[in-house]
Each structure stands twice: as structure tokens, then as C-alpha cells.
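Collaborator request, handled under Task 6.
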Amino acid sequence: MSVRTVVTRPISLLLTTATVVATLTGCALLGLAQDCEGTDPRVQELAALDILGSRPDEATVARGFEKVDAGCWADSGEVAVYAERTYAFSGTRAEVAEHYRTAARQDGWRRDSEAAPEGLCFVREEMSLRIVFLTAELLKEYGHGTRPDLTTGAGYWIRIDANVNSGSEAGC
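C-alpha cells returned to the collaborator:
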């Protein structure tokens, strides 16, 4: 009998520990398990927004970025959807800024009150809209290598983001 007791105690202890760990981490694991399932309609809605197709005269869709890049990402329980376009423009950043300040306002976007005055960040409903000027460093960081067509003049991304499950207000 004593041999049996010695054998079952480690097994009991192991099973008890596993149960406690599973119970304590269960909620955390459920949060990590939240993913992008069921977000396709929202992704398509963002990708279809007219503002993504708005661009200054002479701006062109960048080579290799012909389609709207849209999708979903999940991180630590937060789920967000996005849609973005990449444009090459030989003009100035000021021309791009002027175009989007006007286009965004006409499309119902308002400047994000917490954004820097020179920033190109707008909000509408539960979405944020940002214009990001591209640099060689930024392109390298995102795996796009060197792209002179995007780093001379005013190459830029126009990006819309929306949180899916947080209920938080949109902002940049």
C-alpha cells in the first residue's frame, strides 16, 4: 500500500497543478484566442470606402500595390481591421496634405483633436484615417526594400483602421 501512495501522490499533485494552472489561465487563453474570424464583411466595408481612391492629381497607385491592402490583425485580445492604399506622387507633401484635408472633410471625416496640428489624422464614426509619408527606413521596416518612386517626392500610405471588439473611440 505504501508504494501505491507514493506513486499516486506525484500523479495527484501533477493533476491538481494542471487543473489549477488551466483554471487560472483559462480566461487569459480565451482572450488570446480571439481572432479575426467573422471580420471579412467589416474588412470589405473599409476597403470600399471612397476616400481610399481619392488622390491628388498626378498621384499614381504605386507599382506592386495595385490593390487595396486590407485585412485584420489580432494582438493580446484586441482585434482590428484595416484598409490601405499606397501612392507615388512626384509633388510635395504639402500638396498631399492639402488634398486630404479637403477630401476628408468633404467625406465626413474630422481632424483628430489629439493629433499634432501638422498631422494628417482624421476620425469618423469608429474609424481612423491616417496619411503616412514613406521613407526608405519605413519601407525597409515593412519589408518593401528601397523604392525611389516612393521616397522621392511624396510617396505615402492612406490607411483606415477600426477596432472590432474594444468599444474604444477611434483615434490616431
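The cover message to the collaborator said: "The first strand starts at residue 60 and ends at 61. The longest helix spans residues 2-33. Please let us know whether this matches your experimental observations."
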